[in-house]
Amino acid sequence: MALYYSSFVHLRMQTNAFLLYGANGYTGELIARHAKQYHLQPILAGRKRELIEPIANKLDLPYRIFDLNDSAALLAALKEVKAVIHAAGPFDFTAKQMMLACLLTGTHYLDINGDIAVFEMIKQYDAAAKKAGIMLLPGVGFDVVPTDCVALQLKNLLLNAVSLQLAFATLGGGLSHGTATTMADKIGDGGAVRKEGKIIHVPLGQKGRWVDFGIKKLFVMSIPWGDVSTAFFTTGIPGIETYTGISKKVYYFLKLQPIFNWLLRRTVVRNYIKKKINQRPAGPSDEQRNKATSLVWGQATNAVGRTATVRLNGPEGYSLTTHSALIIVQKVLNGNFSPGYQTPASAYGENLVMEIPGVKREVVNYPSSVNLLQK
């Protein structure tokens, strides 16, 4: 049964109100804590009162308690708001229920997902979203706002690009329980790239290389990041690879993963890993996040080998997610949205990422022009 403060029954009439489902998660709580900075009114929501209520009381915010499988409560909650930020993963188990309910209630759907399969699933509902007059915009966090904006900028710099490589890394920081658990659920599943416009499954870490992020040169390996789906929608570039920073020792160890995939996919192994995750802190501390830096690099190449390269640095990933999610939901609530399925950059352009405090971006090279520095 849904719970709410009666004074907020007509929340859809408020231009600054939105539902935040999964508000007790590490990232969800960060979004709730910083919403006031953007003059926004989140209604906190989740499955367990004992987790949601203390946060709501601490922040003096309204809340609701319901399970996504309780369709009546879910629809009732969404009818009261114009938009939802869905922050309760793993999204391959939760995104569809929330999105389908949004289509029924005419509520804009945003999430902080980074899973290729989830992006591809949501994209199939483009026509339904247009008919409902709402926007479906998954990936409003570090997955995939900065990389998506870099991808579009590279496309605009090199219009005839045929391949795109995107890499990211973090100096400092760490993983939240939610992110680590999602990764644990994917252990043994391998990687993915886009080739000739199609998503192709390949071994995790199939490729490794060094990337100059400007601040530091780091080793990266190929991973199945969300941009394998979203960057193609944003740019139309048919070849896409995504990379993340990793130590070379770990990289060479992971090269052996195909031998053990059968074991890593076993439920007992994944549950053991998740048990270990739950014994760790919920995520990086405020101090860790404030000291950490996220790095993004991208390069587009055309058929004759000409390249354009962009690099970016900014707040730590969870901090960036907090700001980008709130910036985007604020735009939506102000009526700035494009109906149907969208990516961050397709909806708001390559400069969306520059609205996030602390982000710096550099065009390293592109054909027939000098270097350009943007801050």
Describe the structure.
It is a single chain. The chain is α/β, with parallel strands linked by helices and 375 residues long. The protein has 2 domains: 6-141 and 320-348, NAD(P)-binding Rossmann-like Domain (Rossmann fold); 145-316 and 355-374, 2-Layer Sandwich (Dihydrodipicolinate Reductase, domain 2). It is built from 15 helices and 17 strands. Strands 10-11-12-7-13-14-16-17 form an 8-stranded mixed beta sheet. A 7-stranded parallel beta sheet has the order 3-2-1-4-5-6-15, with helices on both faces. Strands 8-9 form a two-stranded antiparallel ribbon. Strand 4 (83-86), helix 4 (91-105) and strand 5 form a beta-alpha-beta unit. Helix 3 packs across helix 4 (91-105) and helix 4 (91-105) runs parallel beside helix 5. The protein is globular and about 55 Å long. The termini are far apart. The model is unreliable at 1-9, 175-187 and 370-375 (pLDDT under 50).
Describe this protein with a few key phrases.
single chain; 375 residues; alpha/beta; Rossmann fold; Dihydrodipicolinate Reductase, domain 2; 2 domains; 8-stranded mixed sheet; 7-stranded parallel sheet; 15 helices; 39% helix; globular; disordered N terminus; disordered C terminus
Question: DSSP helix count?
Answer: 15
Q: Using the coordinates shown, work out and report the CATH topology of the largest domain.
A: Dihydrodipicolinate Reductase, domain 2
Major β-sheet strand ordering: 10-11-12-7-13-14-16-17
The low-confidence parts are: 1-9, 175-187, 370-375
Q: How many distinct beta strands?
A: 17
Largest sheet: 8 strands, mixed
* Proportion of helical residues: 25-40%
What is the class of the largest domain in the CATH system? Alpha Beta
Number of domains: 2
CATH 4th-level superfamily of the largest domain: Dihydrodipicolinate Reductase, domain 2
Distance between the termini: 48 Å
Percentage beta strand: 25-35%
**Radius of gyration, Cα only, in angstroms?**
20 Å
Mean pLDDT across all residues, rounded? 87
The structure class reads alpha/beta
Under the CATH scheme, which architecture of the largest domain would be assigned?
A: 2-Layer Sandwich
Q: Which overall shape is indicated by the principal axes computed on the Cα atoms?
A: globular
